[in-house]
Design goal:
The chain is an all-alpha fold. The chain has a single domain, classed as Up-down Bundle (Ferritin), CATH 1.20.1260. The protein has five helices and no strands. It is elongated and about 90 Å long. The relative contact order is 0.13.
């Protein structure tokens, strides 16, 4: 088998993993009930879909047929393990971590393919920005998580303050 054929096999593997990343982001966006996370995850799902279709388009231009053209998303097509995980672990952090883990698989394949350099330039022109944008999305996610943690602390303090105020009012009513 020629080295270029092996590179195209790796590209098909990348495409497959990228479609799975898209699915993870899509499903996490459906499961998470926090608007900020939902919006971010939906956006990233769309980005993963675009990456995949750019790769498919470039492969077709080079005369290669991709092994996968899409992945089914949503609750109706989940396997029982995903349903069980969604019910048991509906915490945003866990669902987001699943997305990040899948992205790491994609990023490792991207690095391997880009470093190899055997694929045509028009395909590499898609992969290099894809790698950068995925890494940037992880930075953006870390910022969002930090912001949400701060927001949660602020809401907790506000709630404690209101409870304390209510408690004082109740004590005053009792003393009268």
């Amino acid at each position: 088998m020629k080295h270029l054929d092996i590179s195209y096999e790796k590209l098909n593997d990348l495409l497959d993993e990228c479609f799975w990343a898209e699915r993870r982001y899509f499903n996490a966006a459906e499961d998470i009930q926090i608007t900020e996370y939902k919006r971010f995850l939906s956006h990233e799902s769309v980005n993963r879909n675009r990456y995949c279709h750019h790769i498919v388009e470039r492969m077709s231009q080079e005369g290669h047929t991709p092994s996968r053209l899409d992945v089914v998303k949503g609750h109706a097509n989940r396997d029982w393990l995903e349903v069980k995980a969604a019910l048991e672990n509906s915490k945003p952090k866990l669902l987001i971590n699943e997305c990040v883990v899948q992205d790491e698989v994609v990023l490792n394949l991207l690095k391997e393919i880009i470093d190899d350099g055997w694929l045509p330039v028009n395909i590499l022109e898609v992969l290099v920005p894809m790698e950068f944008q995925m890494k940037q999305s992880h930075i953006d996610l870390a910022s969002l998580m930090k912001k949400m943690k701060k927001k949660k602390r602020k809401e907790k303090k506000k709630k404690e303050k209101e409870e304390k105020k209510t408690e004082i009012i109740e004590l005053k009513k009792r003393s009268i």
